[in-house]
Amino acid sequence: CFGFPLSIFFIVINEFCERFSxxxxxxxxxxxxxxxLHWDDNFxxxxxxxxxxxxxxxxxxxxxxxxxxxxxxxxxxYLSIVYAIGQAVLSVGSINELTNNNQNGSTKNLGLNIALSxxxxxxxxxxxxxxxxCVSAFGGDQFEDEQEKQRSTFFSLFYLSINAGSLLSTLITxxxxxxxxxxxxxxxxxxLAFGVPAVLMAVALVVFVIxxxxxxxxxxxxxxxxEVSKCVGFAIKNRFRHRSKEFPKRxxxxxxxxxxxxxxxxxxxxxxxxxxxxxxxxxxxxxxFDQQGSRWxxxxxxxxxxxxFKIQPDQMQIVNPIxxxxxxxxxxxxxxxxxKKCKLNFTPLRKMTVGMFLGAMAFVAAxxxxxxxxxxxxxxxxxGQSQIKLINLGAVPATVQFQPQLQNVDVAPHEATDYMTFxxxxxxxxxxxxxxxxxxxxxELLGGERYTLAFKEGPTGINSNFIxxxxxxxxxxxxxxxxxxxxxxxxxxxxxxxxxxxxxxxFSVSNYSDVWVFFFFRSYTISVxxxxxxxxxxxxxxxxxxxxxxxxxxxxxxxxxxxxxxxMAPNTVHMAWQIPQYFLLTCAEVLFSVTGLEFSYSQAPSNxxxxxxxxxxxxxxxxxxxxLIVAGASTIKKQWAEYVLFASLLLVVCVIFAIMASFYxxxxxxxxxxxxxxxxxxxxxKDDNEKEIEADSRM
Length: 699
What we know:
Interacts (via extracellular domain region) with trypsin. One of its GO terms (cellular component) is apical plasma membrane. There is one protein chain. By secondary structure, the protein is an alpha+beta fold. The protein has helices at 7-27, 29-36, 41-70, 72-93, 111-141, 148-178, 190-210, 224-241, 263-278, 283-289, 295-300, 319-341, 348-375, 579-602, 609-633, 639-662, 669-698; strands at 180-181, 187-188, 385-392, 398-403, 407-411, 415-416, 420-423, 429-433, 438-442, 449-457, 462-468, 480-486, 492-496, 499-504, 513-515, 525-529, 534-538, 547-556, 559-568.
């Protein structure tokens, strides 16, 4: 088909579906841990990076299985089945009704959900990691030697399908997660957010199987990684056996393997180890890079996602693949040629060093954003303190005295104060004074809690309601909280959207209820039913992370009169402020990751590419292990300080890498291999001559 083997189209479609499945699931994973499983940020981050580390450790296992036993086709097939089962198990594990026996939406007993989720993630890690080194190589096997141009085009299509799957899934699955679903109660729809990737993985498997009769299946030919490992192991073992001074030293410690392995393999292994030595500092970069899906997503939950439409916190990850698509051609066609014109020797290792520096700067930018978020975060009372807010729902001004003689506060009609902080043990009562009336409100306070005093002057006296707010933190999910206070003289029934707040007696207050911030819808309809009339009004557009008290003041025809009081400000720092840190990290990725792979492949023999790929993936896994160690063991309380810590560590590693790189001498593996081929030819020629001489002498 257009000069291509028909089989490669099945492989490209399979890769698109698999990448959609993986990145779609991964995009919502951190919020699933914090919002559904109710894990704290540090533990959620640790488990997330444990999963990512496992995804980058299993490719080594997959490559060994494919090259030594099953072959690429069977390895992809069997591990794709494991992968699809894992996605299905994770989706089932996210169903709230599995353990919600009382049907009220509470999720206290999450043991079954957690067990299924962990089993699902382990199976996914085995599947996605195991097939990672096989699929692209299997696609390359479909071409003949003379189809070099078509093979190159295939790899371009292959990587385009990866980016397309990543872009679409990172946009779609957070939107599915933010929708509401449930049998008894409506909650964030994780079964759908995980279910769609599970379906795509099943589609990927079916598409791959359909093309099975068209594939060229190369038999396993042994794994070079095992050969290199055996060679290194034998050299170490042999050197240890001959450690006494009576044995002469050899030029290189790997030369101790010469008794068992040929010189060519030893020389190739030396070249590979020189590159792998440079990999030692690399995990620190990946420790920074992979926090896009954990710490940066959690940071976005405390930010404002209103771009004219609502952006979910986990959708901000889409900035990276979009910028990659833009930056790679710009850097290759504009930046590098300009650097070359300036006659700067911008070697691959120098590019990687600059990439590390930009990665550190990305985390400095993240720290600055976090400082601004913390500045706007509400101050909650300490254990020995209480906070009180005053709301005057009447038509006349009033003064509230905090007894005994602590403070006097004037409150205008239909206005409210901010929360005021007092020592719990010192505050005993509140004395409300209007123009003609007064009232004393006795108090029973708990330390570390917030309260609201709502009051107004009525015909027979001052009506008041002292309310325990029962919120001591921002809404975890980034949604807003809303409650209603009935300022009608009669009992009313209140609904907002699909939420029924029930009947409210005059001057009583409802409990706070979650307000969902949708991708498309910006407001709800607030409806009130009274014995005399029904009226309604559209609500304001609620932002992420706010809390509101809404006063129901009366009906004018069918229009409801309401007044909003902001109990907690919504997130004010806009998510757009994350774009600079994503830009810096994407530039770092282009300079570090793309250049690093290119450098590695240029410095290793052609038959050793798999060894370097294994080392590269291992560095990613170790980087994620660093994050889970820091997240699990860190005593840093401020998130901005942790960002600064990672930036500082990466800067130190950047300096170390620059020093190591300065001692590196670039080589041409093709020249070295050509020398060995010439030596082998000379040896073969010499052997042939000796055989001829021996034959002549016999005659």
